[in-house]
């Protein structure tokens, strides 16, 4: 497994280089001026602007600019934000804890909700409960996340006043105190519930269908013929085989939740990577945009590796050589 992991990690390098070339090229082709923020706004003389562009290397051929950018990027220099006048790495590092808290909380809620609903629907198919769960799944799949976020804010923040509708922590609390951490959890619960409830629909349906399919296989019939308890058949034989498809998604989930939180974080004005990414696109802050895109690309590739490794641990029949 170690050799397999090393081979997969090495194979990520050319993929990331190709992704970086595509990302850099797309940033250059986007309309607008991504570098206006680096020019002194008090001096709009065209000659001065052209001199600054020449000095900063913006008039060089695109391959030369790419080589300079990727060389600095590999060395840990992600560039400077033209909006905040700060290094992009510093901005991203400030937002990552909030986004990770949101993603992990949403991930836990997704798997807990989908596990219990999928188990119930799979063990009691075509009942009223199964039909209600199926109805919820279809509604969750049909409703866009931004609509669900707006409805959640309206009912749970404005009408019931259960959750705050913006920010990541209550203003004035001292960092490191118990009140501070409780406030962060209070602020993250509503957006995490929106992401978790929307994501659990597909997983619930996958688990339900796999449980029904596995319950009809020969090894289950053999276990029933031997007089094995029904609870043991479901928990040991059926469930173990049914969770394998869900495990394959595990590695992608954090990257998917981080990228999928762009709209949710924006609606909740939650200061995370998603909100920062959308802001960097709209305000032409390409150093930040390219850095976040590369981060999400790496997470997707790394998530694929984690999914394969976990898949091999869950199913002993699979060997990673």
TrEMBL record:
- Which terms are listed as keywords in the entry? Cell membrane, Membrane, Transmembrane, Transmembrane helix, Transport
InterPro entries xref list? BPD_transp_1_N (IPR045621), MetI-like (IPR000515), MetI-like_sf (IPR035906)
What parts of the sequence cross the membrane?
Answer: 9-27, 100-121, 133-156, 188-207, 243-268, 288-314
* Matching PROSITE patterns: ABC_TM1
- Topological category with respect to the lipid bilayer: Multi-pass membrane protein
What SUPFAM superfamilies does UniProt report for this protein, alphabetically? MetI-like (SSF161098)
Which Gene3D superfamilies does this one have?
MetI-like (1.10.3720.10)
What the entry lists under Pfam families is as follows: BPD_transp_1, BPD_transp_1_N
**CDD domains from the UniProt entry:** TM_PBP2
**Per the annotation, which location comes first and is thus the protein's main one?**
membrane
Superkingdom of the source species: Bacteria
Q: What is this protein called?
A: ABC transporter permease
């Amino acid at each position: 497994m170690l050799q397999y992991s090393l081979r997969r990690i090495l194979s990520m390098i050319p993929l990331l280089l190709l992704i970086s070339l595509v990302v850099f090229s797309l940033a250059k082709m986007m309309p607008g001026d991504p570098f206006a923020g680096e020019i002194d706004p008090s001096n709009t003389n065209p000659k001065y602007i052209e001199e600054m562009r020449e000095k900063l290397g913006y008039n060089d051929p695109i391959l030369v600019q790419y080589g300079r950018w990727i060389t600095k990027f590999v060395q840990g220099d992600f560039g400077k934000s033209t909006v905040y006048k700060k290094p992009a790495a510093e901005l991203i590092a400030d937002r990552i804890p909030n986004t990770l808290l949101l993603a992990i909380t949403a991930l836990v809620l997704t798997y807990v909700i989908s596990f219990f609903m999928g188990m119930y629907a799979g063990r009691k198919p075509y009942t009223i409960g199964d039909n209600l769960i199926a109805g919820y799944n279809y509604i969750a799949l049909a409703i866009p996340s931004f609509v669900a976020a707006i409805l959640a804010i309206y009912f749970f923040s404005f009408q019931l006043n259960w959750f705050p509708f913006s920010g990541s922590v209550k203003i004035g609390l001292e960092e490191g105190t118990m009140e501070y951490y409780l406030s962060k959890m209070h602020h993250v619960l509503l957006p995490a519930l929106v992401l978790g409830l929307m994501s659990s629909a597909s997983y619930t349906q996958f688990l339900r269908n796999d449980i029904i399919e596995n319950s009809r296989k020969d090894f289950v019939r053999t276990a029933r013929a031997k007089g094995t308890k029904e609870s043991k058949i479901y928990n040991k034989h059926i469930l173990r085989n049914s969770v394998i498809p869900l495990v394959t998604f595990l590695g992608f989930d954090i990257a998917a939740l981080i990228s999928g939180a762009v709209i949710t974080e924006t609606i909740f004005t939650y200061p995370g990577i998603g909100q920062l990414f959308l802001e960097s696109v709209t305000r032409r802050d390409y150093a930040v945009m390219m850095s976040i895109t590369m981060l999400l690309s790496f997470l997707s590739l790394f998530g694929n590796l984690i999914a394969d490794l976990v898949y091999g641990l869950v199913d002993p029949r699979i060997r990673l050589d």
